[in-house]
Write a structure and sequence with these properties.
The chain is an all-alpha fold and about 90 residues long. It has a domain at about 1-65: Helix Hairpins (Orthogonal Bundle), CATH 1.10.287. About 85% of the residues lie in helices and about 0% in strands. It contains 4 helices and no strands. The protein has helices at about 1-10, 10-35, 40-60, 65-90.
């Protein structure tokens, strides 16, 4: 990944990450619209892979550790489970 970033540059790779996120959004939308279409699902998987690759590059480009990511994942999961618990009480 570092070789790719060094060759192409931080700004172009960051822009590609943004583009890949947009393509993932489109793929999700199409899967929701056509849930039984295997080609749509395959495209979703491909776009997810592209975004995961870009995330690895972003971690390198912005010096973000796996530990930092995991800490945020834990915080976000905790928050969503607290919301779920509250929402279930209100049903």
């Amino acid at each position: 990944m570092k070789n790719i970033i060094d060759f192409y540059g931080v700004y172009p790779q960051a822009r590609i990450a943004m583009e890949e996120c947009a393509e993932l959004i489109q793929a999700i939308s199409k899967c929701l619209r056509y849930p039984k279409d295997k080609k749509r699902k395959d495209n979703l998987i491909e776009e997810m892979a592209d975004v995961l690759i870009c995330i690895e590059q972003l971690k390198i480009m912005f010096d973000i550790s796996e530990k930092e990511i995991q800490e945020w994942i834990f915080k976000k999961e905790k928050r969503v489970f607290e919301r779920l618990r509250e929402d279930k009480k209100n049903v």
